[in-house]
Design a protein that fits this description.
alpha/beta, Cobalt-precorrin-4 Transmethylase, domain 1, 5-stranded mixed sheet, 13 strands, elongated
């Protein structure tokens, strides 16, 4: 019986990958994942077998990984960012079910919330929520509820999957929902292509964010009531200076 490792490769650059992830990829027989994510690591591990599936083929991909491990291979399922935050770790466990084999090892990675926050400054120093705007697996009314409650709780908010070709207005709709609770001048930021070619950040108001061009390579940050802009950085204080 082989082993199945679910590894977060970080935002995309080799520099942001953990030592544990690199070791797992160096010692495995096969690397499997979504095509875009496998392409990010392929050149660094040329002696491995590679297996890929496209978007929306998550279940097929995870079943393939479990079966390959059951056949005796040491397999690594790669996930962008962290392996458990919108990653494949949960689905891998679901597919293996109550069985104890193959062995599953989960290796964490730097998720876009952490990578993007570092580029923007320090927007997540206090409590925050992470919400995906993709309604492929989550109903929009539930996403809307989570946005409203996070805003009412005065949490900083990180938004994943803000827009795509099939849902170009999701961020605009989300901003409309948030502006029912939050002021238009709330400090916000966008980090794009974190750890990859074309990496860049923008800081703006919530009103400006509503009209900002975004895509699936963007991660959006919405500050809480204490977040402020410090030149070209976004800072959310925790209150250390008050004690």
């Amino acid at each position: 019986m082989g082993k199945l490792t679910v590894a977060g490769i970080g935002p995309g650059s080799k520099d942001s990958m953990t030592f544990a992830c690199d070791e797992a990829l160096r010692n495995c027989d096969a690397i499997i994942g979504y095509t875009v994510y496998v392409d990010l690591v392929k050149d660094h591990y040329p002696d491995k077998e590679f297996f890929t599936t496209g978007m929306t083929k998550e279940t097929e991909r995870c079943r393939m990984a479990v079966e390959m491990a059951r056949e005796g291979k040491n397999v690594v399922m790669v996930c962008s960012g962290d392996s458990g935050i919108y990653g494949m770790a949960g689905l891998i466990y679901e597919i293996r079910g109550e069985e104890t084999e193959p062995e599953i090892v989960v290796i964490p990675g730097i998720t876009a919330a952490c990578g993007g926050a570092a580029l923007l400054g320090a927007p997540l120093t206090h409590d925050f929520a992470v919400i995906s705007l993709s309604d492929r697996l989550t109903p929009w009314d539930l996403i809307e509820k989570r946005l409203k409650l996070s805003a009412k709780a005065d949490l900083s908010i990180v938004i994943y999957n803000p827009a795509s070709h099939g849902r170009p207005d999701h961020l605009k709709n989300a901003c409309n929902i948030l502006m029912e609770v939050l002021p238009e001048d709330r400090v916000c930021g966008i980090a794009k292509n974190i750890g990859r070619e074309g990496e860049n950040v923008r800081i703006m108001s919530l009103k400006e964010l509503r009209e900002a061009p975004v895509d699936m390579f963007c991660t959006v940050f919405i500050g809480n009531s204490h977040t402020f802009r410090l030149k070209d950085k976004m800072v959310t204080p925790r209150g250390y200076r008050n004690v």
